[in-house]
């Protein structure tokens, strides 16, 4: 048994141990719980300079207290959310905090933000230290103003240390050449021309996630062929392109190691995908897909078996170890109308 006399007191533990624990806690927990336990924790909480201000879920009283009590220079992560539960949070925050003093910020998350407040934040904060940024512009702002586009392009996209960006309005951005972003998440559909632009401008890009890629022929007739050798992960959440166009797109990303697609039945051809991946995506180690097929009536087991059979070849089950599942749901006949039957195909790794 440990001698209680030899057990080190909290007063003698190095401050670095506490700070390492604080790194896993949000500002509310540190300030309203840990800080109140003893005089040592009180002093440590006041001296801590890596605060995570996550205001996406917080009471108004705690929000106001944190804004008044913690020095902006000690904040490294900021999350603001103008949600129904706490509307106008960004406006109140800007009225209480001198954001020019947020000099150590490396993570910035803004949800449902108004364009005017976004412009104010991006132009006043020292953005050079930002590494990760998530911006969700309010749905009420259907179109981005010229000022907002200029601010986003000049003050955000071109940041030298920015490595991860998530945004819901990316279509009208002008991507600077040799952009430093490594991980890009676009919560909207983009055109093929924008996809080609991303490949050309973002040479450091490793991960790309988009909702869909739209075919707009008038915009891509003169698109250059750019092979992106650094992109290793691609996710398209709701793809509607024809399989020929999908293949031509994937030919530009030969270094993919992870590919996730959610698509329609016409793209679901096991043998064709096997041949394409085997020849053109030799580094692909994870291929996840989800395909929901709606039928105008019953589908026989023979038809489903014929569809799933190509995915039982040695390429899928032994070489890649990608196992494809098929689930079929049968619905009822209501008011002289067929309720559509559904089959779902997906991979399990």
From TrEMBL:
This is F-box domain-containing protein. The lineage of its organism: Eukaryota, Metazoa, Spiralia, Gnathifera, Rotifera. InterPro entries: F-box-like_dom_sf, F-box_dom, LRR_dom_sf. Residues 7-58 form the F-box domain. It comes from the Eukaryota. Pfam families: F-box-like. It comes from Adineta ricciae (Rotifer).
